[in-house]
Structure formats: structure tokens, C-alpha cells
Design goal:
Structural class: alpha/beta
Order of helices and strands: EHEHEHEHEHEHHHE
Distance between the termini: 43 Å
CATH class: Alpha Beta
Shape: globular
CATH architecture: 3-Layer(aba) Sandwich
Number of domains: 1
Helix content: 40-55%
Number of helices: 8
Length: 275
């Protein structure tokens, strides 16, 4: 590893899947890590892993949808480590338990709950983190902080047969729009804001899909670079780049990490000769 996060404090929301893989990746590159997650046991397990790797880490159990929760997480990180150099907003999830599906079937409270889970929680953390970053000293690259927000390949490349979850797609579309607007507003202040859009990734949220033979077969041809579901470590590698000084001149972008999802066609029963 490069050590490119030495002396950098990284706040990550969420503690499993992509969040966990990224926390471990950043720690391996020298980061100090703060984890804000709804499930205390998950946060403690991740923090212990980071500490065993020799890096400082703390966690806070908090439901980021609740008013004041984003500020609470940011305040706890600053109290523990003095600053926030990087923020990766991963916390969120599927809205299926709220009734998410095609728009003509989604109950209004299910729509609200799904957008709260993904977009509202991220909005609250971003606002609090930016208030901290705005008064931080610029680093050698002229930056005061980097923010990376979690989108989804489904925002731009729908899969109606397998993932007709319209509230989820809308919540991730809102995150991409907010990320771009934030990047434009804070670029002169030296705060970078980007988004990352994974495709089917082997995370706890994807447990239902990973247990469905039809979805597994779909992932196998839809994501040929991965041969199926993408591993969280692959997303963590891209996230580490966007949060690091190697991406110091990159802002306002959404990086799609999809194993070919967005450009793959369905296989033909009889493909014929290659031309």
C-alpha cells in the first residue's frame, strides 16, 4: 500500500460490505478511521479490525436518518481526531422492506422511508462535514476535504426485470444531483465532491439477489469483468482513489464501477459466427 492516507482522518458511514472494505483499505494506507453506523456491533467489529492493523479508529452507533444525527457523527469524529479530511457516505440500503417497487405500487410512506434512508441521511452528514471542512487549513494540494457519495448503476442503467425499485433509483439519482451541485458550490473552497456508482456487489444488502439463481445468472453475463457479483474490495479500491490526493483535481464526477453492467447486452441463444 502507498501510505497516501497517513495523517488523514476518514469518516465512513456504514460498517459492512463496501463501507467495511473501504475502512480496511484506507487504514492499510495509513488512515485514521471513524465509523458511524446504526448497528453498534458492526461498528465495534470494524474498529477492532482497523486497530489490529495498527491504525487509530473509533465508532459511534447512530441512526443517520434522525434529526441531528449527522451533526452528532461529525462532532464525534472531530472530538476524537480533530478534523475530517475525507468522508465516504455509504450508509443506506434497499427500500423493499418499505414496499419499494414500480412507481404505481410504491406506497407514499415507502417512498418517503426509502429516500430518507439513502438521501436524507447523506444530506445530513454532508452538511455537517462541510461546515467542518470550510474552516480547515488547505493541504499541499490546496484541498480542505474530499467527499464521496454512494450512488448506484441503476440510476442511469435501469434493470426493470430484476430491480424495479423506483424509490431506490430516485434516491440514488438525488444523491448524484446533490453531489454535482455541492461540487460546484464548494470547489472554490477546496472541497471536492464526487459520487461512485457500483453495480451488483456482494454485500449484505445484496443477500436476496445473491441467493436468487436467476439474478446470479444475470450478474454472470451482465458483469463480465467480474464474472458475477463484484467484490466490495473492488469498490473500495476506486473509493480510495477518489478520496486520496491522487484525485486532487477531480470533482463533480460520478465514477461507475460496474464490471461491464452498463454496456453488456443479453446473450443470444445462437450468436452465430463472430464478425
Amino acid at each position: 500500500m502507498t501510505g497516501r492516507f497517513l495523517d488523514r482522518v476518514c469518516l465512513i458511514t456504514g460498517a459492512t460490505g463496501i463501507a467495511g472494505a473501504t475502512a480496511r483499505r484506507l487504514a492499510a494506507e495509513g488512515a485514521t478511521v471513524f465509523v458511524a453506523t446504526r448497528t453498534a456491533a458492526h461498528g465495534l467489529e470494524l474498529v477492532e479490525d482497523v486497530r489490529r492493523a495498527g491504525r487509530p479508529a473509533e465508532t459511534l452507533a447512530v441512526d443517520l436518518v434522525l434529526p441531528g444525527s449527522g451533526q452528532l457523527a461529525v462532532d464525534a469524529c472531530v472530538a476524537a481526531f480533530g478534523r475530517i479530511d475525507a468522508l465516504f457516505n455509504v450508509a443506506g440500503g434497499s427500500g423493499r422492506t418499505f414496499g419499494d417497487g414500480p412507481v404505481h405500487e410504491v406506497p407514499p410512506d415507502g417512498w418517503d422511508a426509502t429516500l430518507d434512508l439513502n438521501a436524507r441521511s447523506l444530506f445530513l452528514v454532508c452538511g455537517a462535514a462541510i461546515r467542518v471542512m470550510l474552516v480547515q487549513t488547505r493541504d499541499a494540494d490546496g484541498c480542505r476535504g474530499a467527499i464521496l457519495n454512494m450512488s448506484s448503476v441503476l440510476t442511469r442503467h435501469p434493470s426493470p426485470a430484476h430491480f424495479p425499485t423506483h424509490a431506490y433509483a430516485a434516491s440514488k439519482g438525488a444523491i448524484e444531483a446533490l453531489s454535482l451541485a455541492m461540487a460546484a458550490r464548494y470547489v472554490a473552497d477546496g472541497i471536492r465532491v464526487n459520487a461512485i456508482a457500483p453495480a451488483l456487489t456482494r454485500t449484505p444488502m445484496a443477500g436476496r439477489a445473491a441467493a436468487d439463481p436467476a439474478t446470479v445468472a444475470y450478474a454472470a453475463w451482465k458483469q463480465p469483468l467480474a464474472g458475477g457479483f463484484i467484490e466490495p474490495a473492488d469498490i473500495a479500491a476506486a473509493a480510495a482513489f477518489l478520496l486520496s490526493g491522487d484525485a486532487a483535481r477531480i470533482t463533480g464526477q460520478t465514477l461507475t464501477v460496474d464490471g461491464g453492467f452498463s454496456i453488456s447486452e443479453a446473450p443470444q441463444l445462437d450468436e452465430g459466427p463472430v464478425r
